[in-house]
Amino acid sequence: MKKLITSIIALTMIISLIGCSSKEESIPESSPTTEQHGASIADKVANANDFAEKIAQYSTIIATDIEVRSNGAKSFRGVYTLDYTGKLTGGDYSDVLDTELKNNIEIPDDCELTIAFDDLTCIEYVVYADGKDRENMGAYPDIVTVEEIENGNTYSSICRDRASNSEESKKEKDEETALPKVATASSVMEYLKANTANIGNFVEYDERTDTNGLLGRPNQYTSKINFAITSLEQTDENDPIGGSIEVFDCNEDAVARQEYIQALGKKMSVLAEYNYVNDYVLLRINHDITPSDEKQYEKALDSYMDSLS
Known about the structure:
Elements: H1 2-20, H2 41-69, E1 78-82, E2 88-89, H3 94-104, E3 112-117, E4 123-130, E5 133-140, H4 146-150, H5 155-177, H6 185-195, E6 199-205, E7 223-229, E8 242-247, H7 251-267, E9 273-278, E10 281-286, H8 291-308
Antiparallel strand pairs: 1-2, 1-3, 3-4, 4-5, 6-7, 7-8, 8-10, 9-10
């Protein structure tokens, strides 16, 4: 979705730019070094931040246009920097980015510039600095502040900081989409549905709806789900027949619950069931499921718990 939105915005801007330059040669936009004599630090930083944003916009247009025209075969991912000759280097398409960017923006020969793209050809960050005036420095999207300038931050330190921020952002996104490191009945259920057969609807309980009255009690399960196995006849969607997932604080509590259930099954055959413990998770399967079918659920639980370690 992020890539699609970026592509639409970029293509719209491309069409606009083509329309404006159809009969006359495009004039590159000026850099923030123009007419800044006597400007305050705040003014210089603000102008430099604006210029960094403009570089990001045009870079996105160029990169997206190339990728769209190549049907996704070309990607600008990577970090591009100006070398000592004033040419952008570093990525697979540095030549075209250098040429096209300079056709639209007047970039001073003595400036410092870094442009970083992510895997979706979206801008991760841009850092710009005027080689003649260290106060004339900006960045995008995480702008340079006056405090950073006054604290002696340099172009190199700003680049390191923005790169670090980008990596931290990636880690946070990965953590948001990653499997939780601690299992819950809900996370186990999600994994079983995706990796085993014949699972239907399920019901997750809380301390008020738990029919056993055990959820959250000392030494009892902290989360619980009952789920339907569709090979069994179902009579009430609010009381699915097939299996149950009970998650405890520790292995000892899970095993104690397992042993209690097994003891009941030995005394009353109608209560007999399959039950399987992996660490602090107890998986219970209805006794009418065939042994070979039941094994798939045990294996899936093992696989899921292994993924957390």
